[in-house]
């Protein structure tokens, strides 16, 4: 890194880091964005000018120190600039999930009391206008994309570029005020407020200071030897702490380039064009990529398919060991090199991961088979364990010590302890300041000494010092037999199969486990097309006898795998049902970060769970759904319930549990 410790001590805010970057590597690219099929680029020096113009425009518009500015939209340089400009004027940026419905936005906007909103396009503007009557403090709305906005009433509506133009026009008048506000920023100033996903209730506003963000970014960047010449693709929700620390915190600390895709539809193409060196994705992205690879292989010719599976089997045997620098025989290395030339290298380039030096996954546990698939190809994919309240980093995996079944060792400057119940606690420079307007939750989560309760259960391995996560503490339980119940372990194994998108396991307090399965429409639809199977809807395909038989084979394979784990062998799936609809965030069944809201699912589908346990062969159900335009409706279905073969568990195993 291009700074001394004494220099680092003066870098107490994002605007200070921005100025350092513009001064030290001003001509280097800071942001790229693909628009109309062409990559646009801004250097750090240009970025500083763009952010200064916006900051002056915000002061001109009446933004006061301490105001909250909500930011809604897809990943675009302009919206990242908005977050830094907000801090520069002493305000607090609050990014929102762009796919949230209007009522969800209304809660966050009302809770933080945002006077100003910066929105990406007409869709986001319309959502805010829809709920503005509920927002008594709301005053001004700034929009980025002018398409469709011409006939809107503009008394409190402003085009982003016009706000910048007004800031430039008032430069001489307002620059002194901007510099005065920036000079007041220090490590204790609020950097950002991010809302939790709300798996168990209303989202909470997590207040993160400059100390939280900058120290976390500095430590993590040093741990992975990140440099100024890294390239990342910023495509994950801007409201998620993972994107904020990678695309803002670390980008500004290291000075590397943030690349924004044209749209969600072009993300994979843009990923291939950029070829990031540092890549972060939740398990769902890696699962989807693997599903697409397997679908394409099924469509490939016989020779290509057999070569793929032959070399993939070899990669599974030695790829991870070669990546970790462990001893591997000469012939195995030669064969792996041939496989790399013929299969692994082209495959990595197709996935856009050919240049990845450091890759991370987090947010949910990733299935070990999926994790090992990527590492076997020579992609340095690692797991980290983190939370919004920790400014991401709690544990990380050192190079050469990467395993699918642990989340690594404590991140730099992070302390971890585990209480008698198995719950994990941590404290670190990244520990959040507070939950906004929620002192009770703050006090119940963070004690007077700064220890934070994660809500996760786990333990440290004595031999390696690595942390193993069992599950959410509230989700871990026991079967009536005394065996441990840890649903995530089994669900991740099920989701390894390309045709299973989601799985939810039940069994706490019962004598055996049952499961809900969601099929992956892309994978199963492709299979149906290849086999000339016609279907009119997701519901019809999900209930097809051949689909059910395929899912049953996967469930039974997972049961055999689970039976090998003494501690969790009681979690085998005895009965399952393939649901008639996908679990959906719009229906409240998942969070915006794709985490299942277990309690809601359990209550909503109680009739199906009852049928799974009472021995019924089928169940008729009626479910409320939310359509894309916000309307509510119902779908009815009769679902077949299937029994799955289980491996008998020896009595001594149950006793051991």
Automatic annotation (TrEMBL):
Q: Which InterPro entries match?
A: AMP-binding_CS, AMP-dep_synth/lig_dom, ANL_N_sf
Keywords annotated in UniProt:
Fatty acid metabolism, Ligase, Lipid metabolism
- One short Pfam name that applies is AMP-binding_C_3
Domain AMP-dependent synthetase/ligase positions:
19-436
* Organism domain of life: Bacteria
- The protein here is known as AMP-binding protein
Specify the species.
Pseudodonghicola flavimaris
């Amino acid at each position: 890194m291009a700074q001394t410790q004494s220099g680092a001590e003066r870098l107490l805010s994002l605007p200070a880091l921005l100025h350092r970057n513009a001064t030290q590597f001003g001509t280097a690219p800071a942001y790229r964005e693909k628009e109309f099929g062409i990559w646009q680029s801004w250097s750090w020096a240009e970025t500083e000018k763009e952010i200064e113009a916006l900051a002056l425009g915000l002061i001109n518009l009446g933004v006061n120190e301490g105001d909250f500015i909500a930011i809604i939209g897809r990943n675009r340089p302009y919206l990242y600039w908005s977050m830094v400009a907000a801090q520069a004027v002493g305000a607090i940026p609050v990014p929102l999930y762009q796919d949230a419905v209007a009522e969800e936005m209304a809660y966050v906007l009302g809770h933080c009391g945002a006077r100003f909103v910066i929105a990406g396009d007409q869709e986001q503007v319309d959502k805010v206008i829809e709920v503005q009557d509920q927002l008594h403090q709301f005053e001004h709305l700034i929009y980025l994309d002018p398409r469709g906005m011409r006939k809107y009433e503009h008394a409190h509506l402003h085009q982003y570029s016009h706000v910048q133009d007004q800031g430039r026009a008032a430069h001489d008048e307002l620059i002194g005020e901007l510099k005065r506000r920036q000079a007041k920023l220090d490590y204790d100033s609020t950097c950002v407020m991010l809302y939790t996903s709300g798996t168990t209730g209303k989202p909470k506003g997590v207040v993160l200071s400059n100390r939280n963000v900058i120290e976390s970014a500095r430590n993590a960047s040093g741990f992975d030897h990140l440099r100024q010449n890294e390239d990342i693709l910023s495509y994950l929700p801007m409201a998620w702490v993972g994107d904020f620390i990678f695309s803002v915190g670390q980008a500004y600390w290291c000075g590397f380039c943030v690349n924004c895709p044209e749209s969600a539809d072009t993300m994979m193409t843009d990923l291939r064009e950029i070829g990031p060196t540092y890549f972060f994705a939740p398990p769902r992205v890696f699962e989807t990529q693997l599903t697409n690879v397997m679908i394409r292989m099924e469509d490939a010719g016989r020779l290509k398919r057999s070569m793929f599976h032959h070399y993939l089997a070899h990669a599974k045997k030695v790829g991870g060991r070669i990546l970790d620098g462990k001893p591997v025989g000469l012939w195995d290395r030669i064969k792996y090199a041939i496989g790399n030339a013929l299969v692994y290298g082209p495959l990595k380039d197709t996935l856009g991961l050919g240049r990845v030096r450091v890759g991370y996954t987090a947010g949910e546990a990733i299935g070990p088979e999926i994790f090992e698939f990527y590492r076997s190809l020579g992609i340095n994919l690692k797991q980290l364990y983190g939370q919004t309240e920790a400014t991401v980093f709690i544990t990380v995996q050192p190079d050469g010590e990467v395993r699918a079944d642990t989340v690594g060792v404590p991140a730099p400057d992070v302390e971890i302890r585990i209480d008698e119940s198995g719950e994990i606690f941590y404290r670190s420079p990244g520990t959040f300041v507070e939950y906004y307007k929620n002192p009770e939750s703050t006090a119940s989560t963070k004690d007077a000494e700064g220890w934070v309760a994660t809500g996760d259960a786990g333990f440290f391995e004595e031999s390696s010092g690595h942390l193993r996560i069992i599950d959410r503490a509230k989700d871990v339980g026991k079967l009536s037999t005394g065996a441990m119940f840890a649903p995530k372990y089994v669900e991740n194994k099920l989701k390894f199969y390309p045709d299973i998108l989601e799985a939810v396991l039940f069994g706490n307090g019962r004598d055996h486990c049952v499961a809900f399965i969601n099929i992956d429409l892309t994978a199963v639809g492709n299979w149906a097309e290849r086999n000339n199977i016609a279907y009119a809807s997701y519901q019809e395909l999900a209930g097809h006898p051949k689909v059910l038989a395929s899912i049953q084979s996967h469930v039974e394979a997972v049961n055999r795998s689970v039976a090998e784990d003494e501690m969790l062998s009681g979690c085998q799936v005895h009965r399952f049902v393939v649901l008639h609809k996908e679990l959906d965030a719009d229906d409240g069944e998942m969070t915006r970060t794709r985490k299942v809201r277990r309690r809601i699912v359990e209550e909503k589908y109680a009739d199906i769970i009852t049928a799974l346990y009472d021995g019924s062969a089928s169940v008729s159900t009626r479910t409320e759904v939310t359509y894309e335009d916000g309307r509510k409706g119902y779908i009815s279905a009769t679902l077949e319930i299937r029994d799955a073969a289980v491996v008998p568990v020896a009595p001594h195993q149950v006793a051991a549990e």
